[in-house]
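Reviewers of the previous submission asked for a worked example of the structure-prediction workflow described in the proposal, so we include one complete record here. The input consisted solely of the amino acid sequence. No template or homolog information was supplied to the procedure at any stage.
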Amino acid sequence: MTKELLPVYLYFIIEEIIPLIISEYSLGEDEAIQKFYASKLYSFLENPKTGVWHYSPKLLFNLYREEMEFGKITFPEEAA
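From that input alone, the workflow returned the following structure tokens.
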């Protein structure tokens, strides 16, 4: 993934994750977006070298939930 294409790809991923966060945590859209952008997961997601951008939105949401509930992220083995 090139740095030029990543923001476009992230837009579509985030568009699917934010409604899941809103539903799961009963947040407004702005708060859900702020919390997601402030997460450690997002820092991995926006770095093309991590390869996290290729995970499905559902998997990314589950990783986000793990970070919020347990303070850690357990990436699938292929990311290691």
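Residues 24 and 71 are 17 Å apart (CA to CA). We consider this example representative of the routine output the project will generate in years two and three.
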